[in-house]
Amino acid sequence: MADTIFPMVDERIEYEGLFSMKEVFRILDKYFRQKGYDKKIVFDEEYHTETGKYIHVKFTPYKKVDDYIRIMMRIWIYAHNLIEVEKELEGKKIKTNQGKLLMIFDSQMMTDYRESWSVSDPELGFKPIYFLIQVLMEKYIYRKRLAHWEGVIRHTLIGAKTEVASYLNLNKFLY
């Protein structure tokens, strides 16, 4: 039976002002690619409203550490009242976006995602002894290994959040 651990939940970035949506996606994509994550876009929508565009994206970078552990980040991106504006920077006109941005970062670690410990016999059904062995193994044998990967998840998620926050902070002073 797969078990899910949530090391970090509901880390947020809220920003209002000038930024490039394309650059935000590029920063996240580049960061997770450098860390060896694969990416799956779960949800992607864009609406044109009277006040500008509304963009809602949910994507999940994930990494299979080994046959027992899989780590995954979930990132929700909401952009409200997004309009395209032209700004002059060093004599050149640059197209950028203006609006509100909300990003929510979550992380999770799944153990036994292949359900190798959940061996069941079709005639006998689920065997509780395997569940007991798995719980004891995670509690006493794999404890340090799971703690290590929780730390890696925290470090990766904080790094991604810092990369985006740094870009957004730079935009305050750039334009």
List keywords for this structure.
8 strands, two-stranded antiparallel sheet, 175 residues, 3 helices, elongated, six-stranded antiparallel β-sheet, alpha+beta
Describe this structure in words.
The protein is an alpha+beta fold. It has one domain. Helices cover 34% and strands 47% of the residues. The protein contains three helices and eight strands, in the order ββαββββββαα. It has helices at residues 21-34, 128-141, 143-174, and strands spanning 3-5, 11-19, 38-49, 52-64, 69-89, 92-111, 120-121, 125-126. Strands 1, 2, 3, 4, 5 and 6 form a six-stranded antiparallel sheet that branches. A two-stranded antiparallel ribbon has the order 7-8. A hairpin with a 3-residue loop joins strand 7 (120-121) and strand 8. Helix 1 (21-34) runs antiparallel to helix 3 and helix 2 packs across helix 3. The longest helix has 32 residues, at 143-174. It starts with a strand and ends with a helix.
